[in-house]
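Running low. Any example?
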Amino acid sequence: MSGHSTVGLKILRLAALLALLAIALAPVFWLSWAHRSQRDSALTAAFDGRKGQYTSPSFVPTKGATYQVEIYFLPSHQPLKLDWKVLDDGGAILAKSRYSEMSGDGNLADLGEYEATSQSAQRIVVDLQSEADFDSTLHVEPLEAGPEGRGYAIPLAGAWAAIVLFGAVVGLRSWFCEVLS
């Protein structure tokens, strides 16, 4: 073989290896990115925790997604008693529940979940019935599909990557031996 064809063959094999590497790792990167981006909050808003009614800013959920409604506290707080509801932009109640805790220990009150039935603007209304003066944050976060969200697919994508990369190594072993020697 001539020198030019040997160099061309090496470049072709290197290009094939890089293409197989991209094919192998693309699902892993996509699932990792999708898994992270799915956990973005639909709403994060300051919540002063004074007795009375609080209405959150509007947020637009994804239709059919299930959302977790939570209050995060910095220090411990007085025990909470409250009613909460989700209203659409027309004022219709989409979900409602009551929350009551025995002690103010911890820094999270998990108020409950609801499924977004429309993609219209929505807001959370909290009616705090107990006298508690605290600074906190109201969070509305999407729950992910499946027991661990998309996390269950990441090991499968990793197995896919291993199989494709193994095939690339076996298929191009003569090139590796040539380059390493």
